[in-house]
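Notebook B, p. 112. Complex prediction, attempt 2.
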Amino acid sequence: METEVTDDQFLDIRDLEIGVTVREPGEPPRDITIVHGVSTTLGKGKVLGLIGESGAGKSTIGLSALGYGRGGVEITGGEVFVNGRDILNLSRPGLNRFRGKEVCYVSQSAAAGFNPAHRLIDQVVEATLEHGLMSRSEAEARAKELFAALSLPDPDTIGSRYPHQVSGGQLQRVMTAMALCPKPDLIVFDEPTTALDVTTQIDVLAAIKNAIRITGVAALYITHDLAVVAQVADEIMVLRDGIMVEHGTTKQIIETPQEEYTQALVSVRSIVHPEQLPGEQPLIRMENIVASYGNGITVLDDVSVDIYAGQTLAVVGESGSGKSTLARVLTGLLPSSSGQITYEGRPLTRAQKDRPLDDLRDIQMIYQMADTAMNPRQTIGTIIGRPIEFYFGIKGQALRDRVTEMLDKIELPADMASRYPAELSGGQKQRVCIARALAAEPKVIICDEVTSALDPLVADGILKLLLDLQKRENVAYMFITHDLATVKAIADSIAVMHLGKLARYGTKTDVLSPPFDDYTDLLLSSVPEMKLGWLESVTASRRMESAGN
Amino acid sequence: MDLKTIPISAWLGIVSASLFAFAAIFAPLIAPYGMSEIVGGVWEPMSSKFLLGTDNLGRDLLSRMIYGARTTLAIAALATIVSFTLGAFLGMAAAVIGGWADQLLSRGVDLLMSIPTLIFALVVLSVMPANILTLILVMGILDATRVFRLSRAVAVDVNVMDFVEAAKLRGEGRIWIITREILPNALSTLVAELGLRFIFMVLFLSALSFLGLGIQPPEADWGGMVKENKDGIIFGIPAALIPAGAIALLAISVNLIADWILNRTTDLKGGRGGN
């Protein structure tokens, strides 16, 4: 089938319907539709951002541009034209000639996408050679140009390294080079910066944007982070549950969103939490904590922080900064090698197994992944009820009443008690974990990245609930996160961690007002802001700084 | 659970295993003759009087097969229970406690497994008094090494999950962690293994009886019956093949059921159905 192709209809998706067959154990298979009649067009050299929460169908739509359905997903209706060719009706050899030549793909986890046994350069030029587009020396020359365009260090020699010899952010850029190497017309970016730390994300983002501009390739940019997509996309399509909510230019979506759902996405993080000043006596004082994991490498070096009753200490840092280790030291799972923890004015036993039951009850924990934090074979009633039974010896009807009361506190209906974790949504699961921690009536709850696995709107609900419960139950939080927006929303005091050391520590106002130390400055300025041109202004100011030095 | 989702292969297994179990339970009611009653000539062919013919002493083969099912299945089942209780508990304890206890148990199991099972059993059984209790214990303990390895491997995986850490942080004891947090999550794998181990027990018992160290005559059991009638094969008498066939049929039926259970449990683990 031939169609008139103009430059603004380079990619043309019409009434796309995508379905999947669900096979639940013990039930007959059934078909469900996950994308309902989505249509869009994309011009040559333009970038379309696909945004939505998990399950919105954004990755599925992105992959359909390669004529591919992942894990039993099938394209059940509609048409996808690339350069005027209906790719859904291509034969398998036809698809093989098309994929990796005209359309390429950049996945979320570059570490899982590269073969650890081969050198980077061989993998970068593989598709180009496979399609016979260039000779090996031409392809390698192009790869080196792309490495340079993506501001990778040592562009001439980095290709001879193995995947484990470069950092995560560099690997993500190498993968982008791999996608750009065969000179495709379209690239699908599937959450390319989601797995990266903020300070790395900004470099990768700038590199990708620069490479798109230089090569003139069109792109579908899939992400759940509106602030990120606002920096690279020309147009944005907002998706929810497989249905297109809104489609417009980036400027229009960010500044004048029409639909209620888009407005909610744009205005997320609207929590206001007045900062509380530290009291006289800290509830927990951790002094000069040093800790290591048995192999002699110090993970925490001389860290001192205070937690006050009914207040939130936010511990911020990138992966590997030692923030989770600090929590493990407080719980006693990893006894510190030196340093002192004082709890209510008396020293707290180092190892968890030697602590009295009352101390264990007073320090509770909420985990990042609610899925693995709950026993899948226990009902919600058992999960929430066990701490009550265990610490207070309450049984029978009284226990069931307490569980109902706890469910009410976390705004879930009472009949949830008989359900299993698998039957709950992500946000509900995290609420149950909060209830389990709260059921022990603790003085401190350690929240380890509790919102980072959740969609922004759901995470917002969880944060509001946590703040609300703090006010009512006067519980203190040690809130571990890499997300500075969350910190700004809920913290009373902040500890910034970097390479196992405390980079900055104090009340929220102190930590977040200048003058900054270098690391805090870098961290704060790397958080994407939801406005056009943010990326350019940050990179420009950094370039000026480094030129000035 | 919907009965329609059970595949035909599993149905075949269930039906034929139930027939064996039925014969074992109601042996005195359905057997046409007594177990050690001499009712005819030596190695009489199949007839309406003796449906499967007679054996080397002129006893009815069908009756002995039915009584044999009782002995074989009961002893195999008891030995499986011993091996599972022992192996699963020690395996999970090793995973949860870790450290020197894990080393001690695991290396002990390695030591026991390094000696060929059959030879080890032969030595022990020829020294110990030959009764059914000894037999069950020897079979159970030797097989517990396999169960130990499996349950330890499964428990190590479950033990690193956050919900186990949450239970430890709460201050729960080891018994609670093993029985309430880990066991329910390891159960489906263990149940599938149970079927396989049961069949190995049947084969093990039959091998011991065939070698003369298992069930002692005149008690009937399938392995012993193969031994009693093996000389008939030279004269073209099929009496030895009938208990052998029954062992094979039982093994296949239980395997079909175990396969089906294993499939169901991997479905549960796979998360999103189709993958």
